[in-house]
Amino acid sequence: MPRPGRVPPTLEAVAAHAGVSRATVSRVVNGTPGVRPELRERVRRSVAALGYVPNSAARSLVTRRTGAVAVVIAEPDTRVFADPFFAQQLRGIGHRLAAEDTQLLLMLLEGRDDYDRIDRYLAGGHVDGALMFSLHADDPLPAMAAASGLPTVFGGRPGWADAARDPGLLYVDTDNRDGARQAVRHLLAGGRRRIAVITGPLDQTSAADRLEGYLEALGLARPDPALLARGDFTAAGGERAMAELLAHSPGPDAVFAGNDLMASGALRTLRARGLRVPEDVAVVGYDDLEPAAWSDPPLTTVRQDVRHMGELMAELLLRRLGLAEGPLAPVVTPARLVVRASA
User: Fold this and answer.
1) Sequence-distant (≥ 6) Cβ neighbours of residue 257 within 8 angstroms
2) Consecutive sets of 10 residues in the chain, 343 residues long: mean pLDDT of each?
3) For the segment 161-175, what is each residue's pLDDT rounded down to a tens digit?
């Protein structure tokens, strides 16, 4: 940081300190690709040592960049701030963007009117690109992103009608089908035979894919209605769904819940009914976020590295913006069962 009264260092001063050309410093400061990593690091050290502060307004005129990225989550704040999934994904996104001196602008959807606000903002040139996730099947956000011309990366497998026809579409997902198969096969190996499923909203591809994996593991074309309950990825939804499953006779001897929050809700209902876990009913969740290990009993669950997925989303967008190097292709990360006391 320059001291008061001191003449701010210039681009030329940074170049002399780093022993590189002025053009090289300009490319590093403006995020232009093509600079060797060792030179880029040398320039960054000189920038820090001298306290050089780029003129962001002038840089924006030259690069046509704002230095900001919109992160659009198609959920209300009551969902986003109550679910540790979103916190982990945002941590990953923020960490990767910060490494390239790019700001995160968070936008949430409280109601249908918010779509107009977000559409105007994306089209207004306020951000360089967008990251969008937790989309539902009829969501207008992908069309808004396309109309704005903004580079966009999606979280989760795209489920809209013409997604398969877009060869440039970028997204990050986990292998939801395989994760669900691992969960159900574990329950089958433990001798469970009436395995129920609590799904998330089936207009989201993550929930639909986990249901498909459940069916594949059981060798079924469609679920038994007595063993299927629809939740909403919340703990309260898991409580309600578990109560619905227990209303059938005979009840399930195991439950695969589509996320850890619904699994925690299912555990509360089972405890309230005097049923033991896993002796009477085994429970498996999905996510393996920190609260899973703290539940009573500790939750068997499918691990997806949510923070890393956020980092990968940001990385793909930075590559598309020319601020990072690497291949541009969708990424699907592996899922892994973590066995604890609940199943």
Assistant:
1) 197, 198, 231, 238, 241, 263, 266, 283, 284, 285, 286
2) 60 87 78 77 87 59 72 93 94 94 92 89 90 91 89 93 83 98 98 97 96 98 96 95 96 97 97 97 96 91 97 96 92 97 97
3) 778 778 889 999 999
> Which two three-digit tokens encode residue 276?
């033991």
Which two structure tokens, joined as six digits, stand for 182? 């691992």
How far CA 191 is from CA of 184, 207, 343, in Å, comes to 11, 25, 11
Give Cβ neighbours of residue 185 (< 8 Å, ≥ 6 apart).
Answer: 217
Cα-based angle 169, 170, 174 (whole degrees, multiple of 5)? 125
Contact present, 309 and 288 (Cβ < 8 Å): no
Are 132 and 140 contacting, i.e. CB atoms less than 8 angstroms apart? no
* pTM for this prediction: 0.81
Residue 151 corresponds to which tokens in the numbers above?
Answer: 């580079």
* Cβ burial 69-92 (10 Å sphere, 16+ → b, else e): bbbbbbbeeebbebbbbbbbbbeb
Tokens of 43: 């320039």
Beta strands 336-338; 300-303: pairing state: antiparallel
